[in-house]
Each structure stands twice: as structure tokens, then as C-alpha cells.
Amino acid sequence: xxxxxxxxxxxxxxxxxxxxxxxxxxxxxxxxxxxxxxxxxxxxxxxxxxxxxxxxxxxxxxxxxxxxxxxxxxxxxxxxxxxxxxxxxxxxxxxxxxxxxxxxxxxxxxxxxxxxxxxxxxxxxxxxxxxxxxxxxxxxxxxxxxxxxxxxxxxxxxxxxxxxxxxxxxxxxxxxxxxxxxxxxxxxxxxxxxxxxxxxx
Length: 201
Prior knowledge:
Helices cover 29% and strands 33% of the residues.
């Protein structure tokens, strides 16, 4: 059968459309995660505390909404982002909000440095790690590490480094996000208990 010029153009167009459809593949919907609802059991603080919280700082690798992971068995130095899973905001902002909420719920007076409240010691957090580490194909944990400094009138009163690894139930992004929620809440509990013993007067 001999095709007309118009028929040849139509077949060429149809072939191009089919190739484009195969190359693009099905689109996977993107899922966004935060740190979830506050835990039912709060931090019990017997000492009245008050701090001015500086915004949590973080390295450039954490300055996005990307949900990051590492493969310990395949180049642990390479940080990889999940393609279809993201945080609702950068990790430093998630941690800043969580600290404010958890400490306020425990009766700690916590305000932002921007509010300019005088005489309160400044709590400064430097976030180093906030990712999911795969120790095997089906085993992973959420890793969070940060340095906490208490400063008053330009004087360093205390400093401590916190690092927590929380086992994930699933070797995937949802499992990592849940483990990170638990890890962050445990870290804030440890942070608050440490602050109770910091001499701020």
C-alpha cells in the first residue's frame, strides 16, 4: 500500500507521540511530610526555664525541602534525595518549630530572638545531620545530629553535642519520616533535660 504525503506525516507524528509517552512514563504523585502531631506524653520540667531561641542553622545540603538518605553499603559519602518524597519545609525550620512547640507544652518560656526579649539566655542550635541511613537493603535508621549552645550577654554558658539514631520500621521514605519524628522528639526531650542543669543566672 502506498501512503500519501499526508499519511506519512500523520504516521511520523503518531510515532513521535508514542515515543514521548514511553520516555516520560507514569507520573508518581509527590508526598510531603512534616513531624506530625505532638506526642501525648509531654516533657515534665520541674524547673522554670526561659530561653530566647535563635532560628536553627544548617549546612547548605539541608537548605531545601529534600528528604535525604545515604547508602552505607554503597558510597556512604553520597547524599541522595528521594524523588517523590519531600519535607513540608527545610529541616532547620521543622526543628525550630518543633522545639518551640515541645518546650512551650512543657511550661518552658520560649520566644524568638527576633522578639528582642531582654535578659533571656539565647539557645542556639546548629544542625549537622538530618537524613536516613541505610545499613542494608532492608534496614535503615533516621540520623539527627546537632550542637546546642546557651549564650547570655555574649558569654557561652554551656554547649553540648546531641546525636541520635532511630530505627525505621520500613526501608523507605515513609518509614524514615516516622523514625525522624520519633528521633527529633527524643532529641528535644534530651535537650530540655540538659537545659534544666545549665546555670543561666
